[in-house]
């Protein structure tokens, strides 16, 4: 192994989102589950409100999609994150690695790529584990009662 390999900056510091391989792109997901929370958009203002209701495919314990490869066929309005779309997705949490890399910022200590442990996102209180509940059984007309405001955390 070349000595320079030990000191090389990690890919998220040296590549843009569009330069990343599919595996690098996927590894940027910290597993917080916030993307999978139901968002309600005001038709008049375009303002997006976040709820603590999760997509029915989200495993709230692991904060991972229970059917990631087929999610878009089962949930047609599931947003597939693409590098060229990140700038326009202002509902992404401030802690989201895709957003942070796009903005030229570093990843937080709890991100699994930094910590080496996929549990740190949960230990830091960033994930929806213990905070979200499934949309299953919730009438669409009642969803407004589940609107929340996340604390800005994660540094």
Q: Please, how many domains?
A: 1
Q: Strand content of the residues, in percent? A: 5-15%
Can you count the beta strands?
6
Whole-number average pLDDT? 90
Order of helix and strand elements from N to C terminus? HHHEEEEHHHHEE
What general form does the structure show? Answer: globular
Question: Whole-Å distance between the termini?
Answer: 33 Å
- Counting DSSP H or I runs of 4 or more residues, the number of helices is 7
- Overall structural class, as computed from helix and strand content, comes to alpha+beta
* Low-pLDDT residue spans: 151-155
> What is the radius of gyration computed over CA atoms, rounded to a whole number of angstroms?
17 Å
Main sheet specs: 4 strands, mixed
Helix residue percentage: 10-25%
Would you write up a description of this structure?
This protein is α+β, with helices and mostly antiparallel strands. It has one domain. The strands form 2 sheets. Strands 1, 2, 5 and 6 form a 4-stranded mixed sheet that branches. Strands 3-4 form a two-stranded antiparallel ribbon. The longest helix is centred in the first third of the chain and has 6 residues. The chain is globular and about 55 Å long. The C terminus is likely disordered.
